[in-house]
Protein 1
Amino acid sequence: LIDKQKALQQTEIFADLPAVILDRLADAARKHAAGTAELVFRQGEIAATFYVLLSGRVRLVQHSLEGKDVTMSTFVPGDVIGIGAALIGETYPGSAEVLEPAELLALPGSLMWQVMNECAPLAVRILRIVVARLHEAHDHIRELSAERVQQRIARSLVRLARKVGLKQADGSICLDLRLSRQDLAQMNGATLETVSRILSAWEREGLVDSGREQITILKPHALVVIAEDLPAL
Amino acid sequence: LIDKQKALQQTEIFADLPAVILDRLADAARKHAAGTAELVFRQGEIAATFYVLLSGRVRLVQHSLEGKDVTMSTFVPGDVIGIGAALIGETYPGSAEVLEPAELLALPGSLMWQVMNECAPLAVRILRIVVARLHEAHDHIRELSAERVQQRIARSLVRLARKVGLKQADGSICLDLRLSRQDLAQMNGATLETVSRILSAWEREGLVDSGREQITILKPHALVVIAEDLPAL
DNA sequence: CGGCACGTTGAAGGGCTTCAAGCTCTGTGG
DNA sequence: CCACAGAGCTTGAAGCCCTTCAACGTGCCG
């Protein structure tokens, strides 16, 4: 119970809340563990609860009718998952699939409503998060509409480098996560074959070093050039 | 001043508010008219105000570096524009371009903050709107990632038919707005040539009847079949 | 009536997908 | 410990979807 409070406090969204509020939330929170490939919730289910990710990695994925999976976003510890749907009480817009073994706190959306109405700063933060995600989604739409696969993949790698990149002594950046060609493809509306070909080409040119579910960026700047479609070399 | 109140009351978002609140909002609101192709706000500007659309039509468009414009969403009377950015105080995620001569009410984001903190139901509605738009954006991402241009165009037409379709006696649906090939292209990440070819093909098959900036759907059901990629005919 | 935005159509080509075959690792159970 | 199954990856060939460029209609409005 106390560890649940501590866990909540360490997330950006629930930090610095009045003790009373934190108590109520921690009291209602239920710990939940899930292994790789498990679904925390499924697309289409009525959303009564949302989740705080404590450890591991989770992605939000939409299934298209033809069986293609599309990754909407991936979450790291501290992120809130499914809060939009849970607050409104509609269905989840996608499934939450565990990428790396995860611990989560499950919280009821209804309680969140009550608390938000009493604690304005909390409402502010939620709105801030949802708006930020909306803007990310808009960026994603622009990229899918106007850019080539190459460019989008480069962009993904640059973004991942900023988020989970381990800078090496020689200036290269190692991406600290399991990342298959398939994953990259589903994040960018492409096929795994195309991703494989692009990475192979980059490897031939010495831009990256890639292996099974693992990628190291050798020339970060060159990747940015591709991602931003800058003219000169 | 009284007409501003009335205008606000007739939008879904500001209906049924306490008179005191409505007063303050109406008082701060400033009427604004804009002609076709004008920009209500520009991508990248600091967002201090948001807008309520009273009449006309407006689209939110992102400009890519290579000069391609991508339409994120289009707004009809009663919609709120730029509220996400204005509440957070960051920059606008895109430009708001007037499609048909529009009247708007401009409201300061800071005031909205204050009012939201006092009036929980209002905060609820804002959040509901932003979440709904996030989910729309996610759908759009899935479509762009997994579907062909044909399918996306069909989907756009079906959606427009629901929103601004005038049902005729013979079962056809006339889209009551100016809609160029270019517009359809920018809504779906395609080129105007491709859209033209697709519409020509559909016209040959008797699915639609299209002219200059004007489209009538002759066989709505057949279009749905294409949009949803249903197997049989 | 001339200008201009919108629209059509063709031809060429490129980017990406699809299908298919084979390879390389990883992990697991005998 | 080794072998093997299977997941992940690579590569080729064929082809389609869509874009790009270009030239030419068409209709609207000043």
Protein 2
Amino acid sequence: MGSQIPRTAALTVAPRVAKDPGRDDPFVTRLRTYTELSAQDVASLQATIESEITVRKRRDLVLEGYAFSKLCFVRDGFAARYKVLRDGKRQIVGFILPGDVVGLPGSFLDRAANSVITVSDVALHVCPLPAFVELCYRRPQFALAFSWLAAQEAAIYAEHVINVGRRTPVERLAHLLLELHSRLAMVGRAWETGFDLPFTQEMMSDALGLSVPHLNRTLARLRADEMIVMQERRVEFTDVDAVRQLAQFQPITPARIPTPAEARNAAPARVK
Amino acid sequence: MGSQIPRTAALTVAPRVAKDPGRDDPFVTRLRTYTELSAQDVASLQATIESEITVRKRRDLVLEGYAFSKLCFVRDGFAARYKVLRDGKRQIVGFILPGDVVGLPGSFLDRAANSVITVSDVALHVCPLPAFVELCYRRPQFALAFSWLAAQEAAIYAEHVINVGRRTPVERLAHLLLELHSRLAMVGRAWETGFDLPFTQEMMSDALGLSVPHLNRTLARLRADEMIVMQERRVEFTDVDAVRQLAQFQPITPARIPTPAEARNAAPARVK
DNA sequence: CGAAATTTTGATCACGTTCAACTTCAGTGG
DNA sequence: CCACTGAAGTTGAACGTGATCAAAATTTCG
């Protein structure tokens, strides 16, 4: 059975939000790392939601080459963005975690550039792109937050390029595990030193540009070197700092969006 | 001496813009592929520009690990985003062309995740981030356009991950050349079947995760197979379709941003 | 429980790296 | 004008890493 309901998601980060609409929504949590949102803001956002659906494990959510114009905010579950090449090889471009958006970047192009497949059962809030755009015209806050989100996405991909392009297999794997840990922690789905790993070795190898056997050996090596412990689907970092060092991992921390007042002060009116 | 002034940039695409402020500005050209901008819009954008500077060849514009909070719109010239790893290997994450933004994603993070180095002399419009944010609050159009831009950026990186992760060396190189051609064409700096290639083989090898000798041989192979012709710094595709096929290249075409009216119609008021 | 997916292990081999030398070219100063 | 310099491009030979293929062991799930 997939993980439709979070099993034991110990909260380490982001437990600060008070009684608020959307307080348990990882996407809202995410937006709140960029900007403040009033209860009313959250209500406006929720009003754009067309439907809330749950998609079963191993279904394609987006198909490469087809137009797609929804934003799906992931409330729970995991997915992967990928492309299959002529010779049948698959490259996973990135993993989609709770709080992420399916349809970024796909819905901003005339046709999606990658497919998206669910890994577990996934609970989604579906928002038609025009509805979101309409919200952005009314409340520029959201358009800005979305730019920040997209920039963060780009930064994650950039790291992924580095990972696949120039790091050794152990470094790649260590980096991936740290990235997942850090991103999960941001939405309160990881604990201090570990997390539940929902992906198979085949998926990780397709993400890292390695063969399955080699990924397996590399994972074994991380265990042998006492960098991590794995049992069930759980990853524990034995010595986080050692792993960080190995992977040269720098967590991606988004800056905050200046408030209207801050922006005005910093940028004295020069407009005509 | 670098290419401070475009030498022979034959315009193939985007010659349609009428007498307008910013008509020859590649960044404005870029924004106009997403949305309509009135002369007044362009003026507002130009008002946020703090200064226009030219940076000499081979200078670092952004340094990894340092906070950076400017947006630099590239008017002319070329640069590369990169990271150097412990062992001295360098990975180029992406190439920056006219119309691109230096500071995306760097300025949206608490500290830049990559460095940026100029390849030729580069002419930049510098805009402090708060000024741009202020503009976005006033004219949400720009915030939306920027989301689109960031999404396109993410899509380009995603392709780069695929390139480096799972494609063979020839396919990688062919894909890179097509990507550069397509992006340059979008801002009118390429011709139908070719373009001026401003990057050295070392840079391309660092972008593609290959060694210099192997990149060289791969390039030689593309020539031998009569896919391309190179002379000086000029690349000509002998048979674009064959190259496209080889690289499985799909150009990234951004969708348009719905206008306020379109957004309202498509998303009937459901607010409160 | 049985079937399928996933993980693990082993043996072989090809591809791309590495290292080194050489060529070509552009820019610079004598 | 030519010699000098350093960067960029080209070529060759040897080596090693990670792919490939195959099969077994283990886990997951219907």
